[in-house]
Amino acid sequence: MSVMKRVSMMFRAKANKALDRMEDPRETLDYSYQTQLELLQKVRRGVADVATSRKRVELQINQLQQSSDKLDRQARDALGVGREDLARDALTRKAGVQSQMGDLNTQYQSLQAEEEKLTGASQRLQAKVDAFRTRKETIKATYTAAEAQTRINEAFTGISEEMGDVGLAIQRAEDKTAQMQARAGAIDELMASGALDDMVSGPHDDIQAELDRLGAGHDVDAELARMKGELSQGGAPREIEGADHADGASAAGPAGAVNDAQPTQASPADQPQAGDGA
Amino acid sequence: MIVRILGEGQLRIDDSATAELNELDAKLEATVERNDESAFRPALDEMLGRVRAIGRPLEAGSLEPSELILPAEGATMEEVRQLLSGEGLIPG
Question: Whole-model pTM?
Answer without folding.
Answer: 0.69
